[in-house]
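From the methods appendix. Each design record in this collection lists the tokenized structure first, followed by the designed amino acid sequence. Records were kept in a plain field format so they could be parsed without special tools. The example shown here is representative of the layout used throughout.

RECORD:
FOLD TOKENS (106 positions):
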């Protein structure tokens, strides 16, 4: 799994006293319904994409899940290329429910 390349350096602005944000994806991983981290998902499973971020509340990001064996459905829609696009970040820790479905032929 990978996120967008957030990682620009933040720095303090000494003239205004404000600290610039340093938005970044800290980590993302899948868990099962019991909150156990998993590496593989099976067709018919419901899994959760856990996203940990820093200074990204209110931002949008894209996450690619990179599965070679299954596809995912989010809010009733199949994710094209296993990619969750323009996800709005609402907190530093976010959990997204995904249904695991049979991989569609290209």
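DESIGN:
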């Amino acid at each position: 799994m990978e996120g967008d390349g957030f990682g620009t350096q933040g720095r303090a602005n000494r003239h205004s006293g404000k600290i610039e944000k340093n938005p970044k994806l800290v980590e993302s991983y899948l868990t099962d319904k019991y909150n156990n981290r998993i590496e593989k998902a099976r067709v018919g499973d419901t899994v959760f994409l856990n996203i940990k971020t820093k200074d990204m509340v209110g931002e949008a990001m894209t996450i690619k899940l990179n599965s070679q064996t299954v596809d995912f459905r989010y809010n009733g829609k199949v994710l094209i290329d296993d990619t969750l696009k323009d996800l709005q970040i609402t907190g530093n820790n976010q959990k997204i429910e995904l249904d695991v479905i049979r991989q569609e032929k290209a």
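APPENDIX NOTE: The chain has one domain: 22-102.
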